[in-house]
Amino acid sequence: MAIMKDSGGGNDIQWCFSQVKGAVDDDVAEADIISTVEFNHSGELLATGDKGGRVVIFQQEQENKIQSHSRGEYNVYSTFQSHEPEFDYLKSLEIEEKINKIRWLPQKNAAQFLLSTNDKTIKLWKISERDKRPEGYNLKEEDGRYRDPTTVTTLRVPVFRPMDLMVEASPRRIFANAHTYHINSISINSDYETYLSADDLRINLWHLEITDRSFNIVDIKPANMEELTEVITAAEFHPNSCNTFVYSSSKGTIRLCDMRASALCDRHSKLFEEPEDPSNRSFFSEIISSISDVKFSHSGRYMMTRDYLSVKIWDLNMENRPVETYQVHEYLRSKLCSLYENDCIFDKFECCWNGSDSVVMTGSYNNFFRMFDRNTKRDITLEASRENNKPRTVLKPRKVCASGKRKKDEISVDSLDFNKKILHTAWHPKENIIAVATTNNLYIFQDKGN
Amino acid sequence: MSSRGPSGEEQKEMEDKVASPEKAEEAKLKARYPHLGQKPGSSDFLRKRLQKGQKYFDYGDYNVAKAKMKNKQLPAAAPDKTEVTGNHIPTPQDLPQRKQSLVASKLAG
């Protein structure tokens, strides 16, 4: 069977370990917990954010012409402290520095720009390269000390000379004080001028140039907080239509809003909700239906949602049910009681599309992650582990045994490590390269057939 | 009362457990926590979610509460609890230690 490049077949791709970043030791410092992973638009840069408020950006090496069978490795390009812990004196609450989301702006000039956010404040960072510096000043020595002006007898024109590459990150805008509740999403509009930020109850629209004002476009806070029944869990702009965005809720619904309809988009244009059989309802139903992530396909025709046990693909033209549903770890349905007790039932898994929208990926427990091929309907479970870290060795598929006799190489549900969760994954926009974050390590896997 | 086989209600319950592992898990949870009355979608549950964040010692709250209580004890956290939550008013003794100063990420190492 011929394997076509970009066929996107999740199982025609042979995933191999490429790199792993981070400390080996088991004792994980809280600050090192990875909280977000994002490729930029070209895939050349890969950014991570962590609980300690730090951003690390990796850059892909230019393809080595001699060893043309392997894509470039990702090496550290820049690292900086994006957010610091803050204190809200009015409420005596600490504001965590944890980076909730990073979103890249498309590149317009030599510099790169990204938005990073914690619970309360969004920052626009400029990452620029400096590879030359001026030399030959008249009034300063090379080390910066000022010369005695009386010793200057000639004038010269300073010139730029090459220097070792230096990558600098500087905060260009700080968008603060617009969110009472905790920011869960940021999304850059296709107009590349505005972006939205969403917290539990409100969504705001910003202009990238303006920091002292933002427009509230969704407000679901009830007049009486006793009537609160759902919160916003994620929001995203449509990739092509600059007037359209969606937001998901803790009750498993997605609302699509059109900013042309009104200034305040409290009334949705479309409501996506899968009908539920009321006789199947349990104490857990609402919790596991809460959507933890929503992502538009690159085409803009579909959107994907992640709830606790499944991934659903919705056609924007059909509101009453998803067009595809993939079970991530259905075997957990009979473990919900203990997952509620250890709080794992509230874990927020993200999901992502491959570049051609043919395969979707999401994480699970035990450092497993899952891919679903929408065309072949086949799925695969892989593990991010240092035990498989021989480059160019194809990863072995994993299988969880739900009940009954466990076959060799299968893992029983009760042996799963629920502390090893893969919440954040990212897929290169053009290639079959994926970044998978375990608690404190970042794994990069590549297609063997590159 | 039938002496043969389960009654209609019991039979339905058994069928439920087989057909719905979720319902079986719910029964387990209710057995462990009989006072768990609140639905997860209730506003209390959601409001707690909105308030996540470590509360610190507030001099104003503390003194107002002390004045109100006069001779009574302030509501204190249970000795085994490490988190300060809800209605509890933090006292200086309860204060968690301030975080360590930040170092470089190990991903960049």
Could you please describe the fold and organization of this structure?
- Chain B: One of its GO terms (cellular component) is cytoplasm.
- Chain B: Belongs to the endosulfine family.
- Chain B: One of its GO terms (molecular function) is protein phosphatase inhibitor activity.
- The complex is a heterodimer of chains A (450) and B (109).
- By secondary structure, chain A is mainly β.
- Chain A has helices at residues 285-289, 336-341; strands spanning 15-21, 34-39, 45-50, 54-60, 74-81, 86-88, 93-95, 101-104, 112-117, 122-135, 159-175, 185-188, 194-198, 202-207, 210-219, 232-237, 244-249, 254-258, 270-272, 293-296, 302-306, 310-315, 324-327, 351-353, 359-363, 368-373, 379-383, 399-401, 410-412, 424-427, 433-437, 442-447.
- Chain A has a four-stranded antiparallel beta sheet, with no helix packed on it.
- The two termini of chain A are 17 Å apart.
- By secondary structure, chain B is mainly α.
- The longest helix of chain B is centred in the first third of the chain and has 12 residues, at 8-19.
- Classes of the chains: A mainly beta (450), B mainly alpha (109).
- The interface between A and B is large, with 55 and 38 residues.
Task: Describe the structure using short key phrases.
heterodimer, A: 450 residues, mainly beta, four-stranded antiparallel β-sheet, 32 strands, 2% helix, 41% strand, B: 109 residues, mainly alpha, 39% helix
Write the layout of secondary structure elements.
The complex is a heterodimer of chains A (about 450) and B (about 110).
Chain A lengths: L14 E7 L12 E6 L5 E6 L3 E7 L13 E8 L4 E3 L4 E3 L5 E4 L7 E6 L4 E14 L23 E17 L9 E4 L5 E5 L3 E6 L2 E10 L12 E6 L6 E6 L4 E5 L11 E3 L12 H5 L3 E4 L5 E5 L3 E6 L8 E4 L8 H6 L9 E3 L5 E5 L4 E6 L5 E5 L15 E3 L8 E3 L11 E4 L5 E5 L4 E6 L3
Parallel strand pairs in A: 28-29
Antiparallel strand pairs in A: 1-32, 2-3, 3-4, 4-5, 6-7, 8-9, 9-10, 10-11, 12-13, 13-14, 14-15, 16-17, 17-18, 18-19, 20-21, 21-22, 22-23, 24-25, 25-26, 26-27, 30-31, 31-32
Chain B lengths: L7 H12 L1 H12 L10 H8 L8 H11 L40
